[in-house]
Structure formats: structure tokens, C-alpha cells
Amino acid sequence: MTGGFSYPDMKTDCSACTSLCCVALHFDRGEDFALNKPAGVPCPNLSDTAFSCAIHNDLTRSGFGGCVKFDCLGAGQHTVQEVFGGTDWRGHPELLPEMMEVFRILRRLHQSLEILKYLELLPLDDAQSQMITMLKGAFAAPADGWTLSSLTDLETDGAFDLYHTALPAFQSALQDPNALAALRAAT
Ligand code: SF4
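A: This is the predicted complex of the input protein with iron/sulfur cluster.
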């Protein structure tokens, strides 16, 4: 059962998260990260006693510019607070794999919704407006909120495939001479 569509809050709030990005994601040593880190293993710079980074004020100089560039678009706090009711992965390590999977799919969803939100501001023709409505329907959260199961269904049922197939149809709207002015006026 799906509720009416509304965009989730996609402004990242690290204070409502449990540093999920610092444990869930893998790094490859290189320009953006000073070391290799597998997914599911806490970053060595993450405090053992708090969800805070020991080099937070010195990330780029310390070789962790990738952390500065990263934005989960609110997927972290939604995972922790809404899907897992505030549970933290240190207190419940058995839940970490599920939390990582929810975080991954929610981040993918929020990335798609962020684009959709901008496309909606463009001068659209009827077919493009209908497509936005269809995509919002495909991405609408269940009335009782996302779960790992409903997020997994979102992927397997093809919502993201639909989104990627639809994107080229907005090329003409992006090239419209009024597009930039419309985006500036609305943001
Ligand atoms: S360097 Fe800091 S912000 Fe980056 S992953 Fe490690 S603990 Fe998190």
C-alpha cells in the first residue's frame, strides 16, 4: 500500500545518524582516501566511543577529501531514525548488514528524487509532466514507511529502471531557454 507522494527531507543531518557512511562504504586508496577500507568495517578515524570523526576538521589535508565530497542526501538519518527506530549498529552489530542495505537503496532513491525535484521545476510539456507523475508514483513511500523489504521490492520491481529510461525524455526541457530562469526562480 502506498501513501500520497511527498519528497523526503534530503538535507543531511549527521547528528541524527550513527556515522553509517563511515562504516557502510568501502574506500579505495587514492586521491580521495588515504587507505583501503572494506564495506562494513568502521573507518579507523571513527571514534570508538562516539559517532564522530577524529580528523573532522582536517579531512582534506589528511587525505580524506572523499569524505568532504560525500553527501548521503539524508539517507543516513532516514535509515537510522525511520527504518530502525534509532537503533545503532554498535549496540546491535547483527543489524549492520540490513542497515547497510537500507542505506544503499535509500541513498539511491534520494539521488533519483533530487534529480526529479529539479526536473519538475523545468518548463515541461504534458507528456513530461505525466512522466514525472508516473515516476513519483513509482518512488512513493509506503504509507507505513520504508522497510528493507519494501526498498528491496522497489529495486526488483524496476522503479529505478523506469527512472533511467525516462531521463532522456527531459532533454528538451533542459535545453529550453527558460529552463535556467525557472530553476533559479524556484531554488
Ligand atoms: S575519515 Fe572521518 S568522516 Fe571519513 S569515513 Fe573516516 S571517520 Fe568518517
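DSSP finds nine helices and no strands in the chain. The pocket of iron/sulfur cluster is lined by residues 22, 43, 45-46, 53, 55, 64, 67 (CB under 6 Å).
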